[in-house]
Amino acid sequence: SSIERDLQRAIEQHEFELHFQPKIDLAKGTVAGSEALLRWRHPERGFVPPWAFIPVAEHSGFVCELTHWVINEACRQIKAWREAGLPPISVAVNVSAADLVNGDLSDFVANTLVTHGVSPRQLEIEVTESMVMHDVETVIATLRRLRSMGIAISIDDFGTGYSSLAYLKRFPVKCLKIDRSFVDDLDRTSDGQAIPKLIVDLARSLGVKVVAEGVETVRQAERLIDMGCDEAQGYYFGRPMPAEDFSAYVMQAP
Ligand code: G
Ligand code: G
Ligand code: MN
Ligand code: NA
């Protein structure tokens, strides 16, 4: 497709950029980390949202090249923030199933960390439950290699995929992210607390961290604090923003 051809050109022409959304430590109110979200500034089409090109890139196999760009850019930014005197902030990047099945992701990550002199503790990887369904053994092997390098793995959109809880025991998971549809329900329905609470308790008993996504109101934040959720992200705390805005955000944060 024309989008496919455009994607290759877009990398060469530096049309992609990462925006960063803060993750807030709910107990302390401090910035606990960030999630990197890909943005495409197309010269004619203007801003192209991820849902319009990531599925295309996944379908064509180009997504692996895109993920490499994202990981390199995340590491470059971590280094730039460090050189600017910012406190160390972790960056979580989203990857696709193809990145895990191809198996070379851990080599690429290892090399890129070395190139930029970045600690593996500052880079995190977000995967979805559905990715586990693709070639389970290969995916687990790739995730274990990443984990053994010191990279934290989060399960994104937790509770929305088709998967069994059994994989949680086999996966080197560091964190569950409560999908924003469940966070929405927190102040919409009377039983809205049930699923977020269940995920918080599950994370607690597995000994993993839990992050709520899509927090838009103070009420949602308060309910999540009450149930013992560790971290949250969402428009209430901060939108995904360009790197310069994100560093200003961190500078003025508690
Ligand atoms: O803000 P938002 O519109 O950025 O993101 C929409 C969707 O695109 C989310 O599901 C998010 O996980 C996905 N996404 C954003 N950036 C990336 C990326 O760099 N790689 C992949 N694979 N998905 C991304
Ligand atoms: O699937 P993933 O969790 O990676 O995607 C994050 C998506 O959620 C991005 O599109 C991001 O822009 C969006 N997002 C982040 N915070 C909020 C929020 O508070 N409300 C809504 N509606 N979307 C959000
Ligand atoms: Mn994500
Ligand atoms: Na999500």
From TrEMBL:
| Domain EAL residues, every copy | 1-254
Q: Which UniProt keywords apply?
A: Membrane, Transmembrane, Transmembrane helix
Q: Which domain of life is it from?
A: Bacteria
Q: Does the keyword Transmembrane apply?
A: yes
Instruction: Please indicate if the UniProt record lists Coiled coil as a keyword.
Output: no
Q: Which organism is it from?
A: Tepidicaulis marinus
| Entry protein name | Diguanylate cyclase/phosphodiesterase
Give the stretch of the parent protein shown, with its full length.
442 to 695 of 721
